[in-house]
Description:
The protein is mainly beta. The chain has eight helices and 34 strands.
Amino acid sequence: MTVRTWLRRARRGLLATGTTAVLTVALLAGTEATSHAASQAPCDLYAAGGTPCVAAHSTTRALYGAYHGALYQVRRASDGATRDIGLLSAGGYADAAAQDAFCTGTTCVITAIYDQSGRGNKLTQAPGGGAAPGPDNLAPATAAPVTVAGHRAYGVYVAAGTGYRNNHTNGIATGDQPEGMYAVLDGTHFGGGCCFDYGNAETNNLDTGNGHMEAIYFGDSTIWGSGTGKGPWVMADLENGLFSGPDPGYNANDPSVSHRFLTAIVKGAPNLWAIKAGNAQSGGLSTYYSGPRPNAAGYNPMHKEGAIILGIGGDNSKSSSGTFYEGVMTSGYPTDAAENAVQANITAARYQAPALTSSALTPGARVSLKATTPCCDTQYLRHQSDGTVAISPVSSTSSSGDKRDATWIVRTGLADSACLSFESAAASGQYLRHADFQLRTAAPNATALFNQDATFCLRAGHSGQGFSFQSVNYPNRFLRHYSYTGYLAGDGVGGHTWDSDALWSEDTSWLTAQPWA
Length: 517
């Protein structure tokens, strides 16, 4: 028996007993096989388990150990030119420096996410559908910065109204054929609308009935079903229902999740499906449901159509939000062992949120925050005499009082030292806070609630410009101006007028400017 034959048989035995494929590397230290296994990526692990990838999308890294093609394409606003963004090396990480150089001095959007499987299942701008007209928005290319194994990269930041799709796919499951899928997501970016999905959908952009979809859903919608707590939850969008378990409604075994980086899994086969999830930075997977299809007409057998969607529902419902880093779809129902091996590979990739810094936003510094929306790009966030907060024009000819009102003193976050609070320069001792989701200034009252309401974490600007400021106690809401008034706003969800998805990315992006006072 040759070494390679023995290794293949040993490897199959390990997978069959539930041992992760990573252990294969240790079988023959110093052999050619060790070098090959060390470069394995998620799609290599799925293939080893007999369920190869038929779609593989990522803007952060290679999902095959030998892949050395483009990950995604960006288009810049200044001249409409496009550029493919590839890898630093085969099987490696995104060449973020190439994107940075191409987009210097302007903004870029992600126009395509390429399929690494070789089947041509790339994702591009979603067209309109039965639930909403189109084409959908494209994600700003710099709104979701991340590091992977220490390398800078960018995810796909989906605000409400943003979506990608492919209706003409190759190899994606149809009918009741078995399939699996996973996605690595930002567990703190979510919405309650329909539907932030990744997976299998209709090919005509319409709701064609129960069981015509099978996709990962992430969010806190309770329209069709939910898990424990307030959400968000990993559920399955099977069309005309977000399922957390065997039937529409509540599943006590589907917990709210809050991992900064989240691995979410949905898989399905004839009268069998499952939901799994885990922390994408450490640990293993938990099974939230595994069993028969929902006990309702249309779901057994399934009627999957084989399109691929990202950020939207099958009928182009696009009122939710989330952030996507990587994901795949497989042919066949993956084994637990293969999924465990993939989870181990994901955690080994060391996803980390970058430490965003700005010399203008260090504690003790004074700063003015300038709006970036085209309507208002000469206006600044300012304190008003009645304690509310708004934006208004400020210039060199403005009064000294207006200049003080538009100046803030940066403080260490009252509720989180890794974040920021802002003291008004015009009203000493009063801090920027939200109350009933409207921005105000007030003096601290030594309560935990005030400290949380007055603490904001620095994030990359959602529009691709400047910075956005995330609430500590409402992590899916950000500082926004709307009708010239300051609010804490969600992107298209929340039930208030200021949560409108129109211009949300621009309205929540701020430039730091020299302090007016």
